[in-house]
Amino acid sequence: xxxxxxxxxxxxxxxxxxxxxxxxxxxxxxxxxxxNITPRLGISINGHFSDRKAAHVHDELHARCLVLDxxxxxxxxxxxxxxxxxxxxxxxxxxxxxxxxGLPPERVLISATHTHTAPTCAGVFQSxxxxxxxxxxxxxxxxxxxxxxRNLSPAQIGWGKGNEPNQVFNRRWRxxxxxxxxxxxxxxxxxxxxxxxxxxxxxxxxAGPIDPEIALVALRSPEGRPIALLANYSLHYVGTGRDGDxxxxxxxxxxxxxxxxxxxxEHQDPPFVAILANGTSGDINNINFRKKRDPRAxxxxxxxxxxxxxxxVHRVCQNLVYRDWVSLGSRHAEISLGVRRPDTKELARxxxxxxxxxxxALRSPExxxxxxxxxxxxYPPSVPxxxxxxxxGDLGIAAIPCEVFVETGxxxxxxxxxAQTFTIELANGYNGYLPTPEHHRLGGYETxxxxxxxxxxxxxxxxxxxLQELFALLEPEIAEK
Length: 481
Description:
Blueprint: E1 3-5, E2 29-36, E3 44-45, E4 52-53, E5 56-57, E6 62-69, E7 74-80, H1 87-101, E8 108-112, H2 131-150, E9 153-154, E10 156-163, E11 169-170, E12 172-175, E13 192-194, E14 203-206, E15 213-220, E16 226-233, E17 246-247, H3 250-262, E18 273-278, E19 284-285, H4 300-317, E20 328-338, H5 344-356, H6 365-376, E21 382-392, E22 395-399, E23 403-404, H7 406-415, E24 420-424, E25 433-434, H8 437-442, H9 459-474
Parallel strand pairs: 5-17, 7-8, 16-18, 22-24, 23-25
Antiparallel strand pairs: 1-20, 2-6, 2-9, 3-4, 6-7, 10-15, 11-19, 12-13, 12-14, 15-16, 20-21, 21-22
Helix pairs in contact: 1-2, 3-4, 5-6, 7-9
């Protein structure tokens, strides 16, 4: 059942409220800040079937915070160097932000980049979150937004988009009959394989498209000094090229450093803040399965990807049209979606597999998914999800708490009423993969039932429908009087 939560304007400027009928203040301000969210060594790192422990910090992790204020409405966007962040953490951070700076929770968007070399914040497979780190993350997100509010100053805003098609590849492949193999549940009906062997003779074709678009929002002072930049790209992650025991922000953090250099924004006070949010990358990665690439040194590939994205963003920035003022809007909805829980037979099979593995770490996919099956047996029949729509002038942003397939992102863009639209995934919680109904029929890793993929098979069209309704509520506000 859809529950739309309408957000009414709250005056955020100082001084007395304008008289009825008075024109709204045309003052646009921006504030940005970062908070260091690097964990202690020894903490769990998720993103793999087996758990890993952090033994080194290659580069620091950050919560990158951006606050926009049009004189009447104020919004905050936070992107964290994290694999995924559960709703209980984002909700608590929003509650603390509301207490600290008076910003309503529904006007705050908090997302994860999906780096696979960050602390476990949401439990998946054999990685469990550290409650102390979750609490630390809440405080650091809150601090970052509070500092961004303190940094609010007059600003100009521009947005646009570019393309970088050479770094994105669909990772789900249709294979020759008989070559996919058995899935962890004993089934042989999967028609696609995630991350198949490179240059395999069994490759037929990708099971879906890519989205090479890079969307960006740039903020600068009236004098032209860069303040912040938010970019959005649909690429799952790249990886470090090492064993996986290092903490790293992956290409997201490397992009932030590179675009800062290209814009000549180093050593500013307040510091320039660059942000790269993940778009719709549930079925997208950085591997060309048709052609094996040359060997890479650790972090070399992540740097190459970051440099390519930053170069395109910098190119687009040269021709942006900046505005002195735009209006802001936000709407959110909480919807309920069904859970694919195991039946009695599936549960019995899973318990039998775990009994055979008792006393040792789980090794095979069959064992890992048996563990997930037992855990999902305890899930409720349905779960709530928060969906959010943000409007910046005639730019629309959709926020979804899932790993979203690129087909979904393209559909949202196509049906949007705004001149430009993009999606931020893994936002305001974590509810696993969001395959389309067609991809559920094809099977494959992203559809395999686990805490990483448990929503009903018809979840995706319901998410799109809700976001269209939220966009429609914002559409009448596009006109800037």
